[in-house]
């Protein structure tokens, strides 16, 4: 071995220190993967980058010490922790003859309660379908209202979701400063629903195609494919219990890349401390 050390130019001490570092890294990698498996019991399809942020927040600092985002991602991919995309399509809303104009495309968004987004999506159960309606504040991506229904009637979908959002924000009158952006589904121009918007002086805005409401499409994929389906939510009863858990997880635990890996709740608290002219701006644009 001494001749080998001389040939390679490595000392005996250096060689043993290297082996010790490798053994330590192997042990720590096993610990990291164990914690990744734990977190993915809740965040079943969370990618490596938000997982890295989450674990840096909740795990002991020594676990990821010296392991940056790219190294962390490499470890997960090498151990088969890749998240494959899911594509499922089922029509939930049907466009009618009337449509409000699109008021938000190209709009600079710089505060909360400037644009709320909404859409409906299906959820498949073992014995049929359920329908989910969500409302997001575009600026913070926070889910502020939702509804679960077994029919697509306005009274069970968009109206209760809107009522929850209004209660969540607690503002009596928006004085034409808030725009409610949705697709062209009949539930969004139903007289009863529009009457609720008018009561709070909220203006309606509508997309002609799904690419003009991309944030909701992405949110639906997260809700169903990353949480509800992996959680094996397959009945209305389970769905009623799982929805509040998902919304709380999405708002308070899951880091969002668009928010510089803050959660919506942390972002909303942070943004209130920044003068309006210094806040980051979101440009609403359709995906082409």
Question: Please, could you describe this protein's structure?
Answer:
The chain is α/β, with parallel strands linked by helices. It is built from nine helices and seven strands, in the order ααααββββαβαβαααβ. It has helices spanning 2-8, 12-39, 48-58, 69-78, 158-169, 191-199, 214-228, 236-252, 264-271; strands at residues 108-109, 115-125, 128-137, 142-149, 179-182, 203-206, 282-283. The strands form two sheets. The chain has a five-stranded mixed beta sheet, with helices on both faces. Strands 1-7 form a two-stranded antiparallel sheet. Strand 3 (128-137) and strand 4 form a beta hairpin. It is globular.
Number of strands: 7
Point out poorly predicted stretches: none
**Coarse structural class:** alpha/beta
Spatial arrangement of strands, main beta sheet? 4-3-2-5-6
Q: Per DSSP, what share of the residues sits in E-state strands of 2 or more residues?
A: 5-15%
Order of helices and strands: HHHHEEEEHEHEHHHE
Give the proportion of residues in helices: 40-55%
The description of the largest β-sheet is: 5 strands, mixed
Distance between the termini: 63 Å
Counting H and I runs of at least 4 residues, what is the number of helices? 9
If you compute it from the alpha carbons, what radius of gyration comes out, rounded to the nearest whole angstrom? 24 Å
């Amino acid at each position: 071995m001494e001749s080998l050390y001389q040939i390679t130019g490595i000392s005996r001490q250096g060689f043993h220190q290297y082996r010790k570092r490798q053994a330590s890294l192997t042990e720590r990698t096993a610990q990291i993967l164990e914690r990744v498996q734990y977190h993915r019991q809740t965040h079943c399809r969370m990618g490596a980058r938000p997982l890295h942020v989450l674990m840096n927040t909740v795990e002991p600092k020594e676990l990821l010490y010296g392991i940056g985002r790219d190294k962390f991602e490499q470890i997960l991919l090498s151990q088969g922790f890749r998240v494959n995309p899911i594509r499922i399509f089922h029509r939930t809303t049907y466009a009618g003859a009337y449509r409000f104009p699109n008021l938000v495309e190209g709009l600079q968004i710089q505060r909360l309660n400037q644009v709320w987004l909404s859409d409906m999506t299906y959820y498949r159960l073992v014995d049929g379908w359920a329908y989910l309606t969500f409302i997001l504040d575009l600026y913070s991506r926070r889910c502020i209202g939702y509804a679960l229904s077994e029919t697509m009637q306005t009274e069970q979908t968009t109206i209760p979701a809107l009522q929850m959002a209004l209660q969540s924000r607690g503002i009596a009158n928006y004085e034409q400063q808030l725009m409610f952006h949705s697709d062209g589904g009949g539930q969004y121009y139903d007289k009863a629903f529009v009457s609720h918007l008018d009561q709070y002086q909220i203006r309606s805005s509508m997309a002609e195609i799904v690419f003009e409401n991309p944030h909701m499409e992405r949110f639906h994929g997260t809700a169903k494919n990353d949480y509800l389906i992996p959680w094996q939510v397959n009945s209305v009863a389970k769905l009623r219990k799982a929805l509040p858990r998902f919304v709380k997880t999405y708002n308070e635990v899951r880091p969002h890349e668009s928010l510089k890996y803050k959660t919506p709740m942390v972002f909303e608290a942070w943004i209130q401390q920044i003068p309006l002219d210094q806040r980051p701006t979101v440009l609403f644009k359709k995906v082409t």
